[in-house]
Amino acid sequence: MDIQTDPVVDSTVRNTYGTWRFQKGWKPLRVVDAEGCYFYDSEGRRYLDFSSQLICANLGHKNQAVIDAICEQARRLPYISPGFTCDVRAKVSEELLKVLPTGLQKFFFSTSGTEANEAAIKIARLFTGKHKIIARYRSYHGSTSASIAATGDYRRWAVEPAGKVDGIVFAPDADPYRSPLSSNPEECAKLSAEYIDYMIKNEGNVAAILIEPVVGTNGVLVPPADYLPLVREIADKRGVLLIADEVMAGWGRTGEWFSVDNWKVRPDILTTAKGITGAYIPLGLTATTGEIGDFFEDHYFAHGHTYEAHPLTLAPAIAAIAEYKRLDLINESRRKGEYMGKRLKELKDKHGCVGDIRGLGLFWGVELVRNRETKESFYTAEEKLAGKPSPIDKVGAELMSRGVYAMSSLSHFVLGPPLIVTEEQIDEGVDALDRSLEGPDKAVTR
Asked: How many CB atoms lie within 10 A of CB 213?
């Protein structure tokens, strides 16, 4: 069926919003099935899910254990108010304690990553009695008021001043490829961390530092080795909380349960969502230390909502954790990630448009540039907000024509197949990207 006349597509476009885009010209692909590492359109065409949709389908599609857990909970107790408790609420808490960084032991459940970050910001302010949050420019923390205010990229620009939350200040990124401070990784780590220390000293009234330990949609930015330990040291010295946004980088994505585990850093608050259920049911988590939890024994916890600790959202998390363990997916992510990184780095040797390849585990960024020396991007935030056509979208369309879906943003691809991916499927995705980069190669200026 022609997508132009598909009644499902027509109804979707007419009656619903497409997110983060101009609505004119939006014609979404109609998906009818998904299984394993593939999804299928209404014409029966198969696509390799090389980005786990939005880096969230970590277990792949149609994991039977997670599906069974949802069905069983729906039969047993589909909903109860968060003022009550039930077996699944206690059980998921016990399972979380086994996989989260040590010391994170008090939990608030929500239904998305943005809600998890909203809760984290509020908790940090209540606990410290301070107001300001230090975030970073190349960051995305969600779309609701405080979360979008803490987002450093163009998605915040588009909504200002509407919904603006005061008290957010931005620090430079720990990204040696585009750092304004130093392209040397060791210097970048030191200077970027020291700048945060400088900000805390001169801003005053800082409650927390909010960071994605491995940045997600802004390009899979892996920090230099010393950066997170230095930030943790600074936070301790200054009496400031460290909030780790693990919404995208958690749940085995970087070859550890959580990305902070790569540097053995324990945050005061950790937020996550996406892979906590493999995206089968929306669930967000805000995990705090026992010290923070104890504070609210005698102080009012001023947060909550109807679907907090919703039983139907918690049951698949228990099943998902069991599946990560049963399938040894943390180690598999690390092992297969080495192979994926090796294959992707071959593209930089072959294509002049590839400026940088970076990643950990099964989480990789491929950045395209017009000029390697100047690092000129193919597409800017200003062009996107102005509605100008994206050359990266053309590459994405070329990939889709070859049966591979890859998530793109501005001038880079965010790649992260399900953790169950095989090396043969990694080859399938990388080979398709290889063939799809011929167009951008022709636009390279040097």
From this structure: 28
Q: Domain spanning 7-62+328-442: which superfamily?
A: Aspartate Aminotransferase, domain 1 (3.90.1150.10)
Query: If DSSP codes are grouped into helix, strand and coil, which group holds residue 243?
Result: strand
Q: Which sign does the torsion angle of CA 117, 120, 122, 124 carry?
A: negative
Comparing CA positions, the residue from 239, 244, 250, 300 lying closest to residue 279 is 250
Sequence-distant contacts of 376-382: CB under 8 A, at least 24 apart: 376/445, 377/410, 377/411, 378/353, 378/411, 378/440, 378/443, 379/410, 379/411, 380/410, 380/411, 381/153, 381/154, 381/157, 381/410, 382/154
* Residues 360-398: tens digit of each pLDDT: 999 999 999 999 999 999 999 999 999 999 999 999 999
The greatest distance separating any two alpha carbons of the chain, rounded to the nearest whole angstrom, comes to 64
CA distance 444 to 152: 28
Instruction: Report the alpha-carbon distance of residue 44 to residue 32 in Å, rounded.
Output: 8
pLDDT tens-place string over residues 173-190: 999 999 989 989 999 999
Domain segments of the chain: what residues? 7-62+328-442, 77-326
Return d(Cα 166, Cα 131) in angstroms, integer: 9
Q: What is the DSSP letter of 359?
A: E
The hierarchical CATH code for the domain 77-326 is 3.40.640.10
Entry pTM: 0.96
How crowded is residue 17: how many other Cβ atoms within 10 Å of its Cβ?
10
Q: Is residue 5 predicted with pLDDT exceeding 90?
A: no
Is residue 90 within 8 A of residue 347, CB to CB? The reply is no
Half-sphere exposure for 229 (CA within 13 Å, toward CB): 8
Residue 26 near residue 10 (C-beta atoms within 8 A): no
Q: Which tokens go with 86? A: 């039930």
Do the Cβ atoms of 224 and 418 come closer than 8 Å?
no
Residue among 432, 443, 317, 427 nearest 391 (CA): 443
Query: CA-CA distance, 395 to 35, in Å (whole number)?
Result: 25
